[in-house]
Amino acid sequence: MIGRNYPPAKSFLRQSRYLLQDQTRAESLYQEGVRGHDYRLMARDFEMIHQLHPGRTHPVFHSVLDFHPDERWDNTKMVEIAQKFLPEIRMINTQYAIIKHTDTSHTHMHIIANRIDYNGNYIQTYPEILNSNDAVRKLIREYNLIPAGSKDLRQTNFDALDKSETRKYAIYRSIRECLPGCRGLEELEQKLLLSGIETRYRINQGTGQKIGISFHYQNEAFKGSSIDHDCSLQALQHTLALKQDLTQWEAEKLTLRATQVQQEQLSQAKEAMEQQQRQKQEQELRQQQKQRQESDQQESRRQTIRQVPRLRIHH
Description:
With about 325 residues, the chain is of the alpha+beta class. The protein has helices spanning about 10-20, 40-50, 75-90, 130-145, 165-180, 185-195, 225, 235-305, and strands spanning about 1-5, 25-30, 60-65, 95-100, 110-115, 200-205, 210-215, 220-225. The chain is about 50% helix and about 15% strand. The strands form two sheets. The protein has a five-stranded antiparallel beta sheet, sandwiched between helices.
């Protein structure tokens, strides 16, 4: 499976029409807060919530989850996967619809949602692409999905392969197992060597840059792209670069979280101090009121004594 996010769009009507108008290919699987039987009514429902924050001119969220051609999921499971995807990219407390399309060789579903939540707040999803990739990887692990463009080793009949094909699959499996824990090509090379696989590069003589990759195993060499598209030099570099970006983002999230915790602690300390000051002021005010009451009572007694007539004693 792979996730693709489209840039924020302006028109719910245009997006809803594209997703639902052709009933021969589209099936509305689930809706939250909108009607799914007519694209015009769906767009109208989305726009009603958009009016809570009309200043946002691009309120449309649109994402696609593509499944591997060898995978077949029923509608219930597809809805379950989509509903787990949305919170991972922070699309919560808002309207959405899940629409399945069957016009291609592989099943895929579209998710359209309102970037304005039910409280009228704009939903911040930055960095959306990284969050989406992270969510897809979690779903792949949880549901044992096949990453798009990958061979399905579960469907491979190894006994029917010749020796070269068997070696290709051995290399492919080793790369898939080693790649998630690698931060660069050099680290991948070292891990593959432990499985007896040697990595070699084709170098541009003019620039000295790597322009190709091959893998040597049991006295036979294979170009990376002949093993699988994901094993080409460009694909491996892209995967590793994306992993570095995600690692950096994780570090940034930790930093942001630490800053947030620090701010919360400062806010709590400030609130506690203000509370103490309020209590002190209230105590001082009560003390002053008590002193005024005692003073008024003493003055009242003195006035009473002055007003009592003095008795004269005659001898």
